[in-house]
Amino acid sequence: MESLNYLIFSTLERCLSERGLILGEKSINNIIRDVKVWLKPSVEGKGIRATQDGSLTLISDKYGEPYHSLTSGAIRECLLKFIEPSQVVKKAQKGKVRIIDVGFGLGYNIAIALERIKRANPYAEVQILSFEKELPEIIPLLPEPYKGYQKLLLDGLPEFCKDGISFRLLLGDARKTIKQVSEFIADAVFHDGFSPYRNPELWTYEFLREIRLRVSLEGIWVSYTSSLAVRKALKMLGFGIATSQSVGRKKGGTVASLTLRDLLSTEELKKLSTSPYAIPFRDETLKAQPLEILINYRVNVELLKVAQGGIEPPTPRFSAGCSTN
Ligand SMILES: C[S@@+](CC[C@H](N)C(=O)[O-])C[C@H]1O[C@@H](n2cnc3c(N)ncnc32)[C@H](O)[C@@H]1O
Asked: CA 55, 100, 260: angle at the middle one, nearest 5?
């Protein structure tokens, strides 16, 4: 814990100095307190764990969270947060569907999507481009009827072409590997990093802009998160957004498309336009350390809170240059 405190404090000092900002003690304490809470593991331990619907998932001790929702159920989450809202089955019924998969993980989203697609149209052509930084050492297997597709994927890594399925996995930091992709245009994007505070590099305005370049006009981006920072970035990139259905105790996720009109509740829209937390994570070089992204985000939130009044003001030595729109 002591070393985490030190890491947060030293990174904050560096971020402030790079931006020429001096914050008051109260603001510094607020930032450190929030970042510590955000980084606290949501679940302890590691290894395989059963989820609410009986399917298994893995706990990542590095990120302090499970690969799938324990309370919603892993398979249920894949179906309700990714496969259904992205409409991949409907698209495949017309003959072909192209999917970008951010965070291949255990391959659940893709295996379940393949089973559903091929059940609806055995002749469908499916093109999949997956991104994954590091495959886990052990991968629990899905039950039938998904197991065969998961094995096909795991045995075929990093790429294969079989029975109308073309699959390619780019191993490494997606912020870098996505630059290798120039010709893939997706009808659907499964955006499934770990949660935005613990894995912010996959949720920045700049990374989402890379994704946007690779989505068709009618394409549908889906994720389990309803994070204000992520939604704001999507809106700034021209996506219309809606909330997908809630699963178990989890809130609804996000569905986004360049041709969709916003379909959010009045309360959701108000939060998105007034909350100081509704500003994007930023990573201009696509190389920043996750903790730097998180801390710079929280500093920007603090600057907005100060602008809204009530908190001791920061002393900028020169323009902070933070984006608040
Ligand atoms: C929540 S899990 C994905 C679960 C997966 N979609 C499934 O259905 O099994 C998040 C995944 O994102 C991967 N990840 C995290 N940061 C990444 C990065 N910078 N580039 C690529 N993959 C990353 C993690 O290694 C992890 O496998």
From this structure: 100
- Pocket test of ligand 1: the residue of 202, 223, 285, 291 to mutate, having most ligand atoms within 8 Å of its CB, is 202
Supply the pTM of this predicted model: 0.94
Q: Does domain 48-273 have CATH number 3.20.10.10?
A: no
Question: For 18-73, how does the pLDDT look when each residue is reduced to its tens digit (9 = 90+)?
Answer: 999 999 999 999 999 999 999 999 999 899 999 999 999 999 999 999 999 999 99
Best residue among 55, 62, 67 to mutate for probing ligand 1, ranked by most atoms within 8 Å of CB: 67
CA atoms within 13 A on the CB side of 145: 7
Q: How far apart are the CA of 132 and the centre of ligand 1, in A? A: 6
Distance CA 270, CA 10 (A): 35
Instruction: Give, for 34, the enclosing helix (H) or strand (E).
Output: helix 25-39
List the beta bridge partners of residue 102. Answer: 131, 191
Question: Cα–Cα distance between 124 and 96 in angstroms, integer?
Answer: 5
Distance CA 121, CA 137 (A): 33
Pocket of ligand 1, candidates 104, 110, 138: which has the most ligand atoms within 8 Å of its Cβ, to mutate? 104
Using DSSP bridges, classify how beta strands 96-102 and 186-191 pair: parallel, antiparallel or unpaired: parallel
For residue 140 the two structure tokens come to 């629990």
**d(CA 199, ligand 1 centre) in Å:** 9
- Residue 158: is the preceding peptide bond cis (ω within 30°)? yes
* Ligand 1 atom nearest to CA at 134: 25
Q: From ligand 1's centre to the CA of 95, what distance in Å?
A: 28
**How far, in Å, is the centroid of ligand 1 from the Cα of 172?**
10
Bridge partners of 98? Answer: 127
Two tokens at 254? 């996000």
